[in-house]
Target: tRNA-specific adenosine deaminase
Amino acid sequence: MDEVLLEKEKWMREAMKEAEIAASLGEVPIGAVVVKDHQIIGRGHNLREKTGDATAHAEVIAIRNACETLQGWRLEDAALYVTLEPCPMCSGAMILSRVAHVYYGATDPKGGCAGTLMNLLTDNRFNHQCQVEAGILATECGALLSSFFKELRQKRKQHHKPST
Model:
């Protein structure tokens, strides 16, 4: 396996650690990290349920964290790794913060805006485009989501089970 792929997988595993934190909090397990100069400068995981904030997506939190680290809003030359294909809001945040590269794991057939439903990140009508690569540890990233929703459905079934 080549070094570049190993590097991408290394950072995606860090994003997966963030997703596991989200799951432990009862959040949908999506995690993200922002990497610049071979260092993580921002981390985030979903916190929508905990905060009651619709914008508390992993990517937005990771971008905010990276901007705080750099003390500026431009994330040029940075890469964002996220376990699930970004939604429209997160794709917009990546464009506005000038993220150079976006790597994601699992595709999102219901909300993915990095190639599935549309690709906002490479649309040349915007003043910035991100390079996008899909499928980094896609099976593992997808498994995090699948197992979370399977457990959630089982809990709901047991909760609604009539007593005998």
